[in-house]
Design goal:
The structure is a homodimer of 206-residue chains. By secondary structure, the first copy, chain A, is mainly alpha-helical. Chain A is 68% helix and 0% strand. Chain A is built from nine helices and no strands. In chain A, helix 1 crosses helix 4 and helix 4 runs parallel beside helix 7. Chains A and B meet through helix 6, helix 7, helix 8 and helix 9 of A and helix 6, helix 7, helix 8 and helix 9 of B. The structure holds a DNA duplex (30 and 30 nucleotides).
Chain lengths: 206, 206
DNA sequence: TATATTAGTAATTGCTTACTAACATAAACC
DNA sequence: GGTTTATGTTAGTAAGCAATTACTAATATA
């Protein structure tokens, strides 16, 4: 009946993972730029100095967050992109998977915005930009498959379609930030997706 | 032949306007959260202490920026919304006017993102959120006009269409932040706009 | 069991921040 | 022409920041 009390001492690996999640949890509540090492320390129940037992500096924490993001979001998108033989259904699955991921991790869009605003040479921004590059690549490939099967406009520009795809998610995220609640956008999702489908589909008979 | 040298001493009104523009100029280069009163002072050629001769505190500066934004962007959108008798053409004019405004003031999207991430009770966020509310209202009214004239889907959900409209601009802005240059998105604009038109139009014969 | 390593703390470092106070000077007014 | 007022400077303040230090306790290892 002894409770499995967690040891107060944790390995560096475990603490790093804790702090990455702490940053995302804090980013859901406040601007990423205003998150301090003291905030992070309190969030995981440590003193401020202990943070630097597990990370050489603050930037290393942000880089770790960016790496976690890539390692979590991209497989999600990749899986959805290959979930069926119908490219349009796969696109819809990416859309839904991405939005669900954002709702479960409300700090993520804010973190991405924050990093994209950094100077170009920042390694964390390069990491995030690289991830979005890969994301776009996946979208474009699915759109090309759809075109090859005659499911979308033969004249479709995949780059524009990918930009609008990401933009449609951005628009929903912005609505959520406006309202303040991430769950409140749920009813808007099908409407926006229907419009996106009409935009790219060959035969818009909906 | 005497050069019309500007007096070193300026009125508070003039300095306030200068500093609002300074904030936007700085926001084009760096994260709004990292802009200090020293940065602003140097940008307008004053000492840091002089900033507080014209503003009671830093938040008042940001509020002034938000007010300038509303007073500048909304008339632009309003004018475009009534520029012709064709609602779809008016929508296109809003789209182009907004993107031109963003290209001329690259700090604006970053400022808006920055403010939307603030806690809900922040007066500056409320100001920005209110402006976006009005913006959405204008869009929805134009979309309703288009529906009444049978130019768009009779089943169109105006709220979703407005979200996708703003999202399509967001997507382009995000591309610009990724690339680093605001002008580089120019070739993407017509493609994205064509897709948006197809999404809402009754007869997509393009 | 003795020793080395790892993960923690509290206190302090140098620096930056928004904001203020004392003083200076240009323009406006009587 | 002298006084007042508005706009400027310089030199402060207290608070908060990332990062370091000296030290301690827990854990692994020989």
């Amino acid at each position: 009946m002894k409770a499995a009390t967690v040891s107060l001492r944790q390995s560096t690996e475990a603490r790093q993972a804790e702090m990455v999640q702490a940053v995302l949890a804090l980013a859901a509540r406040q601007e990423p730029a205003s998150i301090t090492t003291t905030h992070i320390a309190h969030e995981v129940g440590l003193s401020q100095g202990a943070v630097f037992r597990h990370f050489p500096n603050k930037q290393a924490i942000w880089l770790n967050v960016a790496e976690w993001l890539e390692a979590t979001l991209l497989p999600l998108v990749q899986t959805a992109a290959k979930s069926s033989s119908d490219p349009l259904e796969n696109l819809s699955n990416i859309f839904r998977a991405h939005l669900q991921f954002v709702q479960e991790n409300p700090g993520v869009p804010r973190f991405i915005f924050h990093e994209l605003q950094q100077p170009a040479d920042s390694p964390v921004k390069q990491q995030v930009a690289g991830m979005l590059q890969v994301y776009s690549g996946i979208l474009i490939r699915v759109l090309q498959q759809a075109k090859a099967q005659g499911l979308v406009l033969p004249t479709l520009d995949e780059r524009s379609a990918a930009t609008l795809f990401i933009g449609s998610i951005q628009g929903l995220v912005m609505q959520a930030m406006l309202i303040g609640s991430c769950a409140a956008i749920q009813p808007l999702i099908p409407g926006v997706w229907n419009l996106y489908c009409r935009a790219i589909r060959e035969e818009p008979n909906a």
